[in-house]
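Recall the central idea of this unit: under ordinary conditions, the amino acid sequence of a chain determines the structure it adopts. In this exercise we apply that idea directly, starting from the sequence alone.
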Amino acid sequence: MGEVLIMVRDLDDMIAKSGLEEDVRKKFLELLHEFPTAMKVSRSQLSEKDAKALMLAGFLTTATPGWTSSDVYSRPGDGMRGTMTSLNSISKAASGSLAAVGGEGAVHAAGGSGGGVKGPGFGEYSLALPTTGTFLKLLANARAHLLSLLSKSKFCEVPESLLRQRWDGGIAADDPASAARHSRGEFGVLPGRTRKWKQFHGMSFEWILGECVGAGMLEVFDTRSIGRGVRAL
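Accordingly, the structure predicted from this sequence is:
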């Protein structure tokens, strides 16, 4: 999570209008153009002063351990998260083999790098775009919350309707049972008091479910009896 696609000319224009000092802008642009596929830069490539200015402008963040091409074949689930490799070909490969997770170098073949600028220094900075931090934090928390709701069920598997109810905070739905409770004056929890609205600003269940499925964290399947089900991967 956190990878962003942006045109080079748009990024160059954003940096030019950022208000950074001329020498800092020049050094940063040269570094980006020298390593166009890098997602991280070594601390040795930038002075502490320049790095601080870039972090304040929103173009760098402190790197945290994450998923890279070095562990593309560590687990089948991870192998599918960062690539666009055909699931049909993966499903036919022997379990535990490189082919089962897209093959060695699958991330690079899919258009990413998964690595960073190499240097002799210690530690790295992650490349970033200004104003995206708030959104990514919201997304990370929403993913974690949905997975926590799923983990409440045995085997981390649950009907989609029940998971939706948990995400919505158990508020009244548009069904006969809810209408009957409403007629008796049983209003239950108000929408504005649920975590969906207080913490996630009304993020819809459909959106976060699609996000987690696309990230390879969940899968949706047909139960053949009670509609669709959701399970953790």
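Confidence is low (pLDDT under 50) at residues 65-88, 107-121.
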